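Following up on my earlier message about zinc ion. Here are the inputs again, as you asked, copied directly from the submission form:
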Amino acid sequence: MNKEALQRTIETSMAHYWSTSRKKIWLKGESSGHIQRVDEILVDCDMDAIILKVEQKGGACHTGHYSCFYRRLIPPKKLENIGRKVFNPEEIYRG
Ligand SMILES: [Zn+2]
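Thanks, got it. Here's what our run produced:
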């Protein structure tokens, strides 16, 4: 998220992000419909990190999971899947 993305997020209460690959601001869910309606924006002590508390429509992750954080690390290097898929990414992102 850059400054403009944050500004649009504040103005619309919908999460916007800066896409480094497309080099433009994008509304999360603009193609999938899986938008994030922002309930709260938390700001850290140094004012250099924020957390968005959102109401997630569908799934946030391009893999089809509700959240990108669907795996837990079991040290030293095992990953355990603790998430759930809420949509089929091949149906959403084809073509
Ligand atoms: Zn993800």
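One observation from looking it over: The CA atoms of residues 70 and 82 lie 5 Å apart. Hope that helps, and feel free to reply on this thread.
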